[in-house]
Amino acid sequence: MRYHLALAVPTVAPPSMRVKDQIHTWREGESILFDDSWNHEVYNRSPEPRVVLMVDVLRPMAWPFHAVNWLVTRVLARFSEEAQQIRANLNRYA
């Protein structure tokens, strides 16, 4: 599951996000929680940037699926290229 909180949203042509067949138009201070395994994409036709806080949330699962999900999440968080880039950015600006 993924949680998005809109921190800065362009006022002209605000961005929108499609999750499956539903469209969400961003508004500053509003949020959305969605299953990121579904097909999704964001459209930002504004010349201004969109700033969103993204938080991954482990989905509730029965044992032993929860253990497998937890393990895979930890491994990806440690070794994925995206996680390494996030750590590098944090170190650069900390």
Structural class of the secondary structure composition? Answer: alpha+beta
Query: How many domain modules?
Result: 2
Number of helices: 2
Cα radius of gyration in angstroms? 16 Å
Largest sheet: 3 strands, antiparallel
Beta percentage is 25-35%
Summed up, what is this model?
The protein is α+β, with helices and mostly antiparallel strands and 94 residues long. The protein has helices at residues 65-79, 81-93, and strands at residues 2-8, 16-19, 22-25, 31-34, 40-43, 51-56.
Write the layout of secondary structure elements.
Blueprint: E1 2-8, E2 16-19, E3 22-25, E4 31-34, E5 40-43, E6 51-56, H1 65-79, H2 81-93
Antiparallel strand pairs: 1-4, 1-6, 2-3, 2-5
Helix pairs in contact: 1-2
List keywords for this structure.
single chain, 3-stranded antiparallel beta sheet, 2 domains, globular, 30% helix, 94 residues
Question: Would you mind describing this structure in some detail?
Answer:
- With 94 residues, the protein is an alpha+beta fold.
- It contains 2 helices and 6 strands, in the order E-E-E-E-E-E-H-H.
- It has helices at 65-79, 81-93; strands spanning 2-8, 16-19, 22-25, 31-34, 40-43, 51-56.
- A 3-stranded antiparallel β-sheet has the order 4-1-6, with no helix packed on it. The protein has a 3-stranded antiparallel β-sheet with strand order 3-2-5, with no helix packed on it.
- It is globular.
- The chain starts with a strand and ends with a helix.
- The relative contact order is 0.20.
